[in-house]
Design brief:
This protein is an alpha/beta fold. The chain has a single domain (2-164), classed as 3-Layer(aba) Sandwich (Rossmann fold), CATH 3.40.50. Helices cover 35% and strands 17% of the residues. It has six helices and five strands; from the N terminus they run E-H-E-H-E-H-E-H-E-H-H. The chain has helices spanning 17-29, 45-53, 70-78, 104-118, 132-138, 153-164; strands at residues 2-8, 33-39, 56-61, 93-99, 127-131. Strands 2-1-3-4-5 form a five-stranded parallel sheet, with helices on both faces. The radius of gyration is 17 Å and the shape is globular.
Length: 187
């Protein structure tokens, strides 16, 4: 049984759209995994502890001024010391971005880039953006529906994500400053 950590990067925590989306993810995972949800709006310390034990991590965030949620940004800032460590190296990550109308795809791409640089493995087709615009458009049942990401795509993403959790590869790690990544370098 896979241990999957779901990180909610939304400032709304367990009260917003991301929390609803996480319920959908858990429903689609069903009995295929044991899940734990950490709402980063309540702090990042618990997430840092839990990430070590996880077989894979699912990131969920809204779109806030062309970026991911501030709690997720804080998590990255607080977790810099985990870059390239066994806690992250090659650990599969899936990403879900929610948005009202625009900006989400850029956030998805940037977020996957950050995760890859930290050491996470980004499996194929393991990220999507779901928008209010898509949600409204999909209710009209038109012939363009397949061109929109849909709630049902969660299953495909989770299938690829869980397959990646079975991979065992000895990855090479670049030498990053693990002693004091926050030290001042500008004089």
């Amino acid at each position: 049984m896979k241990n999957i950590l779901i990180l909610n990067g939304s400032p709304s925590g367990d009260q917003g759209n991301c929390a609803v989306w996480i319920k959908l993810i858990k429903k689609h995972l069903g009995s295929e995994a044991v899940t734990e949800v950490v709402h980063l709006s309540k702090g990042t310390a618990l997430a840092k502890k839990k990430i070590v034990l996880a077989d894979g991590v699912i990131f969920v965030t809204g779109t806030y001024w062309d970026s991911w949620g501030s709690p997720l940004q804080k998590f990255f800032e607080d977790s810099t010391d985990l870059e390239g460590t066994a806690a992250l190296m090659g650990k599969p990550a899936a990403v879900f971005v929610l948005m009202h109308s625009v900006g989400g795809k850029g956030i998805l791409s940037r977020l996957q880039g950050v995760l890859s640089t930290l050491g996470f493995l980004i499996p194929p087709m393991c990220g999507m953006v779901y928008s209010l615009v898509s949600d409204v458009a999909l209710k009209s049942k038109n012939s363009h529906a397949k061109d929109f990401w849909q709630k049902e795509d969660i299953s495909l993403i989770l299938k690829n994500f869980l397959k990646a959790c079975d991979l065992e590869i000895q990855w090479a790690v670049w030498p990053v400053d693990k002693k004091n990544p926050q030290r001042r370098w500008l004089k």
